[in-house]
Amino acid sequence: MSNNTDTVPESYPMNSGDGTNSYTKNSYFQRAATNVVKAKIDDVIAEKLDVKKNSSTSESTFRLADLGCSVGPNTFLTMQNIIDVVQQKYQSQGLASHMPEFQVFFNDHVSNDFNTLFASLPPRRSFFATGVPGSFHDWLFPESSLHFVYSSYALQWLSKLPEELLNKNSAAWNKGRVHYASGLMVLIIPGIPNGIHRSSAPTGMIFDFLGLCLIDMAKEGLIIEAQVNTFNLPVYVASPKEMTQLVETNGCFNIERMEITQPGARVDGLSGQALTKHLRAGLEGIISKHFGTKIIDELFDRFSKKQQESFNLLESKYNVGTQLFMVLKRI
User: Fold this and answer.
1) How far apart are CA 307 and CA 207, in angstroms?
2) End-to-end distance of the chain based on CA atoms, in angstroms?
3) 95: which of 90, 253, 275, 305 fits an S-S bond (Cβ 3.0–4.6 Å)?
4) Nearest to 67 by CA among 191, 155, 139
């Protein structure tokens, strides 16, 4: 990471508070996906974490960080799960007497709703909680100060929308679409090989529905067409090959484990309405920033109806999401 402060990363906070459309109330899809990789994280800690090395030093605190923690409650469950497994590792190694204290750093953009996050902290927790506001694209922690770093559903957010998407003279101009993976991608992103890609994943289909709703609203004069043409979701999901190249180029880590997980079990209570609420909880902020708040209810009402027409197709493909599970070890 670089501590270059010349440019400020853009911020896309999830819906704050604990209301009907909040991320707090509409993030159980993400929780289900996180639960899928819990056993894998447990295995890696059991196999790879060197607690003997840590216990041999004067260091008495084990420090964890969740990058992109949002507003809870998923982050609390995950951090406690990790701590439980680390404690089990100490005990299994006969080091119970050297059990450290635990400190968790909850990180997200400065615009994140930290009030809701900390107001909902578990009252009986086995860790000290610390908030770290700022983009994880920048320098956040002192060198060699963390033992375990976790991130889920956060790395796909770009720090800044590539300018080529907004340039009418660029081959990557994304007219009429809200997500460039939904069309032909000829965009060069630093560190990511350029190429041609068309998304066929359920996420791409969902973004397509959202874009169609915005186009319809532009045709009816509810918004300006130029606003649609200049709106793009700053999201890029790197492939395993691309992630491998990025890690190798960075040179600071070894890849200990990498695999694609495709959870078979669907989320209980999956419905078109639930899908709409989850999308709104995650994207309302960035949409409001570009189009204003007046169109939000109408937009997501239209989205709900449009995707419900094709929900049988989505339901046949949509589970808790295809994920890239990757474990890195500092060199």
Assistant:
1) 10
2) 15
3) 90
4) 155
pLDDT in tens, 258-270: 988 765 444 555 5
Residue 255 one-letter amino acid: I
Query: Mapped to the 3 state alphabet, what secondary structure does 122-172 carry?
Result: CCCCCCEEEEEECCCCECCCCCCCCCEEECCCCCCECCCCCHHHHCCCCCC
From residue 62, alpha-carbon distances to 48, 54, 108, 254 in Å are 16, 9, 20, 21
Instruction: Quick: pLDDT tens for 112-150.
Output: 999 999 999 999 999 999 999 999 989 999 998 999 999
Concatenating the DSSP letter of every residue in 80-132 gives: HHHHHHHHHHHHHTT-GGGPPEEEEEEEE-TTS-HHHHHHTS-SS-SSEEEEE
Rounded to the nearest 5 percent, the helix, strand and coil shares of the chain are 40, 15, 45
* CA triple 319-312-272, angle to 5 deg: 70
Q: What is the pLDDT of residues 285-302, one digit of tens each?
A: 999 999 999 999 999 999
Calculate ∠ Cα 24-154-308, nearest 5°.
60
Q: What is the pTM of this model?
A: 0.86
Domains of the chain: 22-154 (3.40.50.150), 157-238+267-324 (1.10.1200)
Q: Using CA of residue 120, residue 126, residue 130, residue 135, what is the dihedral sign?
A: negative
Pair 133, 68: CB distance under 8 Å: no
Helix (H) or strand (E) holding 328: strand 323-330
